[in-house]
C-alpha cells in the first residue's frame, strides 16, 4: 500500500466523521450550516484560490487535461441523456452524474495528496468547471423544459439567450472563479504579494481544508435519504466509478500522463457537487433525489476515492 496516500486520506475521513458526529449530536445546529457554508465559500476559499494562483504564469498552465476532463464529463452527460430521454428529470440526473464537488472535498483532498502543484491543476479546472458545465446544463434544462411546456396553456416561453447569458454571468461573478482569475492576472504583473497581505491569506487558506471537510460531515448528518436511496445510489455509482473511468479513458486516448491526468481522474471521482441541487430546485425536478445523491455519493466516495487515488499514484504519477 502507498502509505503517504493513506496518510493524506486519513484526515479527510476523520474530519468528515467528526463533522457528522457534531451534527448528529446536536453540537452544531442545522440552522448554522448555511452560515458555515458562507464562511467557507465567501472567505476561506477565495483566500486560498487567489494566493495559490497569484504565482502562476499562464505560459506554465497546461489546458490539455482540462479539455480532457470536459470531454469525459460531456460523454457521461450525453450518455445519460441518451439512455433516459430528453427531459428535465434526465437532465438533473445527467448533471448529478458528472458534476463534482471540486471545492469542499476536492481542494483539501488534492492539496493533501498532490501538494501545491496539484492544486494549480485543480484550480485551473475549477476556474472553468461551473462556468462551462452549468452553462451547458442550463441550455439543456431550458430546451427540455420548453419541450415539456409546449402546448401547455398558461405558460409563456422563456428567453433562451437571456437565460444562457445569465448563467454565464453567474459562472464568472462568483466567489470561486473570480479570485482565480484575479490571482492569475496579478501573477502576470510579476509583483510579489506583500507579507502583510500574504500571511493572512495563507492562514485563511490553511483553515479551508479542515473546516470544509467538517462542513461536509455536518451536512451529511442533516440529510435524509429515505425512499430515494436506490435512485441516489445509481447516481452515486455513475459519479464515483463511471466518471473517473471515462476520464482515465479519454486522458489515455489524448496521450496524457503524469500528475495532471492523475488530478483530473481524482476530480472525476469526487462525489456530487451542491450546485446540482440548486439546478434541481430552480427547475423543480428531482429535488429529493438529488439531495439524497449528494449524501450517498459522498458516503460512497469515502470508499472509492482511496482506491482511485492509490491507482493513479501508482500508475500515473
From TrEMBL:
The keyword Secreted does not apply. It is a multi-pass membrane protein. It is found in: Cell membrane. Keywords: Cell membrane, Membrane, Transmembrane, Transmembrane helix, Transport. InterPro entries: Mem_transp_PIN-like, Na+/solute_symporter_sf. One of its GO terms (biological process) is transmembrane transport. It comes from the Bacteria. The chain crosses the membrane at residues 6-24, 36-54, 66-87, 94-114, 120-146, 167-187, 207-229, 236-255, 261-280, 292-316. One of its GO terms (cellular component) is plasma membrane. Belongs to the auxin efflux carrier (TC 2.A.69) family. This is Putative permease. It comes from Acidovorax soli.
Amino acid at each position: 500500500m502507498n502509505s503517504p496516500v493513506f496518510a493524506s486520506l486519513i484526515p479527510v475521513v476523520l474530519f468528515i466523521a467528526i463533522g457528522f458526529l457534531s451534527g448528529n449530536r446536536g453540537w452544531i445546529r442545522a440552522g448554522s450550516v448555511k452560515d458555515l457554508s458562507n464562511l467557507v465559500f465567501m472567505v476561506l476559499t477565495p483566500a486560498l484560490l487567489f494566493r495559490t494562483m497569484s504565482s502562476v504564469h499562464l505560459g506554465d498552465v497546461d489546458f490539455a487535461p482540462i479539455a480532457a476532463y470536459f470531454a469525459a464529463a460531456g460523454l457521461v452527460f450525453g450518455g445519460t441523456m441518451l439512455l433516459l430521454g430528453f427531459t428535465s428529470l434526465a437532465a438533473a440526473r445527467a448533471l448529478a452524474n458528472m458534476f463534482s464537488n471540486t471545492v469542499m472535498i476536492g481542494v483539501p483532498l488534492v492539496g493533501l495528496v498532490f501538494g501545491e502543484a496539484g492544486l494549480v491543476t485543480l484550480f485551473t479546472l475549477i476556474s472553468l468547471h461551473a462556468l462551462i458545465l452549468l452553462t451547458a446544463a442550463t441550455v439543456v434544462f431550458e430546451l427540455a423544459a420548453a419541450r415539456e411546456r409546449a402546448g401547455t396553456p398558461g405558460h409563456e416561453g422563456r428567453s433562451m439567450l437571456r437565460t444562457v447569458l445569465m448563467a454565464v454571468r453567474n459562472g464568472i461573478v462568483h466567489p470561486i472563479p473570480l479570485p482565480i482569475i484575479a490571482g492569475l492576472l496579478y501573477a502576470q504583473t510579476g509583483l510579489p504579494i506583500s507579507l502583510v497581505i500574504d500571511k493572512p491569506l495563507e492562514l485563511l487558506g490553511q483553515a479551508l481544508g479542515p473546516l470544509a471537510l467538517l462542513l461536509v460531515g455536518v451536512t451529511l448528518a442533516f440529510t435524509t435519504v429515505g425512499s430515494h436511496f436506490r435512485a441516489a445510489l445509481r447516481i452515486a455509482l455513475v459519479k464515483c466509478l463511471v466518471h473517473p473511468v471515462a476520464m482515465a479513458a479519454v486522458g489515455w486516448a489524448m496521450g496524457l500522463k503524469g500528475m495532471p491526468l492523475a488530478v483530473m481522474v481524482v476530480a472525476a471521482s469526487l462525489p456530487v457537487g451542491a450546485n446540482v441541487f440548486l439546478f434541481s430546485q430552480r427547475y423543480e425536478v428531482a429535488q429529493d433525489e438529488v439531495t439524497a445523491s449528494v449524501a450517498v455519493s459522498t458516503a460512497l466516495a469515502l470508499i472509492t476515492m482511496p482506491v482511485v487515488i492509490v491507482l493513479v499514484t501508482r500508475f500515473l504519477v
